[in-house]
Design a protein that fits this description.
The complex is a heterotrimer. Chain A has one domain: Alpha-Beta Plaits. Chain A has two helices and four strands. Chain A has helices spanning about 20-25, 50-55, and strands at about 5-10, 30, 35-40, 65. In chain A, the strands form two sheets. Chain A has a two-stranded antiparallel ribbon with strand order 1-4. Chain A has a two-stranded antiparallel sheet with strand order 2-3. In chain A, strand 2 (about 30) and strand 3 (about 35-40) form a beta hairpin. By secondary structure, chain B is α/β, with parallel strands linked by helices. In chain B, the strands form two sheets. Chain B has a six-stranded mixed beta sheet with strand order 1-7-6-10-8-9. Chain B has a four-stranded parallel beta sheet with strand order 4-3-2-5, with helices on both faces. Chain B has 17 helices and ten strands. Chain C is mostly helical. In chain C, helix 1 runs antiparallel to helix 2 (about 45-75). The longest helix of chain C has about 35 residues, at about 1-35. Chain C starts with a helix and ends in a 10-residue tail after the last helix. Chain C has helices spanning about 1-35, 45-75, 80-85, 95-115, 115-120, 120-130, 130-145, 155-180, 185-195, 205-210, 215-220. Chain C is about 75% helix and about 0% strand. Chain C contains eleven helices and no strands. Chain C has two domains: about 1-180; about 185-220, no CATH class. Classes of the chains: A alpha+beta, B alpha/beta, C mainly alpha.
């Protein structure tokens, strides 16, 4: 079993753009100040692509994936 | 278990300030001159205190230190030091209680020469144990620092303390005496930190040593992998180092003669008495809280609440506190923790909500301003507490605070929001009746003076360097 | 005859793609500033701004590539390949083409670092990305000086329009940065504006607390003065 992939925020880098919440609404929502509330459950395989896109498109490079599975 | 009291100078005047650490008699600080034939090692300290010699105005010189404890015993290898630390069950005394042998192993296993830092910047205004230790037993701390630096093969060895010209001069002198006597293997750098609550946080410390501001960092990778200058960095509280210096001399079994089997050894506590005074005392872990606090028996009258664990700790009912002991096994289930050993008993004459509001405001303004949930959540909660303390009706405010606390917790780069939320939530439990009174426009307090020490907050960016 | 016509075709292609590239680069810069300022395009979700910035920049790179290739292939003037990346190395109009080469060098740095963003880390990427502010004026100067196209008629209006757009976007960026609250004051600023606006919020009690000085707060009595309600 490959290790679970999880989404994590670097709260120092995050400035509350909110792009992640639009790209991965199943796992990320925004609090009343515009900062991401991240579900730290393992990312379902179906959302893997979306999660990677959210990580890539964060303007502050504040979103990261932990326990990344290799894609072959 | 005996408990020895070390009287701190209590500041006069209206504001309670950080309790001044006790200082040694100035005339007795002098270098160790003579080198006689090596005597047999003096016996291990029996009972308590262990870290700071008993008596008023103790001699803190190198000569007296060596006479009391004998020379520093470097273990034959890093593995030996790790082994004795593990056998002794020594955990960090900076608040997190992390096992010392595991941190030391992790840093050595990284394979690259690490940086070793003794952390004397306690940050917490209500704590003065590290300051006291540095003034009264500097050589014990410096011994511990040498042990760790030597075992880890450190490329840099640092002692990190809050900015204090007198302390820096004093420690420089102590280091010079050691250099002259040839006790040290590693040169020690003294580095100053600004007087910020977070300055002693592990990654904030690394940041300062790297020449940046005293702000915590996102800890991926962790500090023991990449810290000062990108090197693995070992950070240990100065009290932890002092205990290690004794363990290296007298062994794990001796260390375990105090404390409990699960949480062995002794720890320094800063006690704020209901009469307004404070002192630093060394107690065995597992000592009953009753043995450290009078809980109404002394001057100051009836006690309405006990703060246990400092400003990131928790308020407790005095009856509940009286049944607890000074160890995490007893305190964690009660919602508190041993932490850095700060205990305060709040007299019934004061307003618990006002005290909480003052501290909360201080903690909120000590936010590093980096993480949205913290620099938004904490000021919102602090503002709500001020409103509650000010005899305004509660209502919506209570629900707001609960929501904000949930949003702040666990979403910062460091544990500042978590500790803040723990502190505030405990106030809502313990001062529930007072909240009800304030909602009706009444307050039970008869003494409006502030009780807990709250320093002035940072005004600008310059205060963070 | 054929050779001259194909040469002219290549020359036209180079000029045309150059103009389009300049417009695209203008758009990239404006979109980039919009991302930085948390700005929104009307009717579009926030991720559209970042996605467009990325897509348009890649499109701009493509147009610049065609612009350079056609210019090199054109037999009428001799511009070596080296001159397209080494500034001021061409024999034909060395200064103005040189600026073009500088612009390309900057674009290469920006493109590579942006594609490898996740690998090189935030700080390195940000440091290089600042060069974006330099690459537009250099490209603009290259466009104005290399030929008469942008100095006449409709294309002159276009060039002025691009310059105005960039000036406006940069002003937006600078004003935004000036208004940014330093880290050391962020918590204090939130506290000063608590409980915030909104209808129904009483202004007296909380305002009295808001305006307390640090030492007044520490000194003790937090109850509002009689009559302050």
């Amino acid at each position: 079993m490959p290790p679970a992939t999880r989404v994590m925020v670097n709260p120092v880098a995050c400035s509350g753009h909110g792009v992640c919440a639009e790209l991965l609404p199943e796992l990320i929502s925004l609090d009343e100040w515009g900062y991401p509330l991240v579900d730290d459950a393992p990312v379902p395989p179906a959302l893997d692509g979306q999660a990677r896109r959210a990580v890539r498109d964060c303007p502050a490079l504040a979103l990261l994936l932990t326990g990344v599975r290799d894609r072959r | 278990m005996t408990v020895d009291r070390l009287t701190g100078q209590h500041p006069t005047g209206q504001h309670p300030t950080r309790p001044h650490p006790a200082r040694p008699h100035p005339a007795r600080q002098r270098p160790s001159g003579q080198r006689s034939a090596r005597p047999a090692r003096p016996p291990a300290p029996a009972g308590l205190p262990r870290l700071i010699p008993a008596g008023v105005g103790p001699d803190a010189s190198l000569g007296a230190h060596l006479a009391r404890l004998g020379p520093l015993a470097y273990p034959p290898s890093a593995g030996a030091l790790i082994g004795v630390a593990e056998a002794a069950g020594l955990t960090g005394r900076g608040g997190a209680a992390f096992p010392v042998h595991r941190k030391l192993s992790a840093v050595i296993q990284s394979g690259r020469p690490p940086v070793v830092v003794g952390n004397g910047a306690e940050g917490e205004p209500a704590s003065s144990k590290d300051g006291s230790l540095l003034w009264l037993a500097p050589h014990l701390v410096l011994d511990g620092l040498q042990l760790v630096a030597s075992a880890a093969g450190a490329t840099r060895t640092v002692l990190y303390v809050h900015r204090d010209a007198a302390l820096i001069a004093y420690l420089s002198q102590a280091l010079a005496h050691r250099f002259a006597a040839g006790t040290d293997r590693a040169p020690v750098e003294l580095i100053e930190a600004p007087h910020r609550f977070l300055a002693g946080e592990e990654s904030a410390l690394v940041n300062v040593i790297n020449g940046e501001t005293a702000r915590p960092q996102f800890k991926r990778p962790p500090v023991y992998e990449r810290g000062v200058g990108g090197r693995p960095t070992l950070v240990q509280n100065v009290e932890t180092l002092a205990h290690l210096a004794l363990i290296a001399r007298f062994g794990a079994d001796w260390f375990r003669a105090a404390g409990t089997p699960a949480e062995p050894g002794s720890m320094l506590c800063t006690v704020h008495r209901a009469d307004g005074g404070s002192h630093v005392v060394e107690a065995g872990l597992g000592a009953p809280v009753r043995s450290l606090l009078r809980l109404g028996g002394g001057g100051g009258g009836r006690v309405q609440a006990v703060l246990c664990g400092g400003y990131h700790g928790a308020w407790l009912d005095p009856e509940h506190a009286a049944r607890l002991s000074l160890d995490n096994a007893s305190l964690r289930p009660a919602g508190s923790f041993a932490g850095a050993g700060v205990l305060a008993e709040l007299p019934a004459s004061r307003c618990g909500l006002a005290e909480t509001a003052r501290v909360a405001r201080y903690l909120a303004l000590e936010s590093a301003g980096q993480c949205g949930p913290c620099f938004n959540g904490l000021p919102h909660i602090a503002g709500a507490l001020a409103e509650l303390a000010g005899l305004r009706p509660g209502g919506q405010v209570l629900a707001d605070v609960r929501r904000w606390a949930g949003l702040a917790q666990g979403r910062g780069a460091c544990h500042h929001p978590d500790g803040f939320v723990r502190f505030v939530r405990s106030a809502f439990t313990v001062f529930e009746a007072e909240i009800g009174r304030h909602a009706r426009g009444q307050c039970s307090a008869t003494d409006r003076r502030p009780f807990l020490p709250v320093p002035a907050t940072a005004a600008s960016e310059a205060d963070w360097s | 005859m054929n050779g001259i016509i194909s040469g002219t075709a290549l020359w036209f292609a180079s000029r045309a793609t150059g103009v389009v590239a300049l417009v695209l680069l203008t758009l990239v810069l404006v979109l980039g500033i919009a991302v930085n300022r948390h700005g929104l395009l009307p009717g579009l979700p926030r991720f559209a701004v970042t996605s467009l910035h990325r897509a348009v920049s890649l499109l701009a790179v493509a147009f610049v590539a065609v612009h350079v290739t056609t210019a090199l292939a054109d037999p009428f003037v001799s511009i070596g390949i080296a001159a397209s990346v080494i500034p001021f190395a061409s024999h034909y109009q060395p200064f103005w083409l040189g600026l073009g080469a500088v612009s390309i060098d900057l674009m290469i740095a920006l493109t590579i670092t942006s594609l490898l963003r996740a690998r090189i880390g935030r700080r390195t990427w940000r440091a290089v990305h600042w060069l974006g502010y330099a690459s537009w004026p250099v490209a603009f100067a290259h466009g104005i000086g290399s030929g008469p196209d942008l100095r006449r008629g409709g294309l002159l209006d276009l060039a002025i329009g691009c310059a105005i757009a960039v000036a406006g976007a940069v002003a937006w960026r600078v004003i935004g940065t000036r208004r940014e609250i330093p880290l050391a004051q962020r918590a204090a600023q939130v506290m000063a504006t608590w409980p915030g606006g909104g209808p129904g919020r009483r202004r007296d009690g909380p305002a009295a607390l808001r305006n307390l000085r640090d030492d007044q707060f520490r000194d003790g009595d937090l109850r509002p003065k009689a009559g302050a309600r």
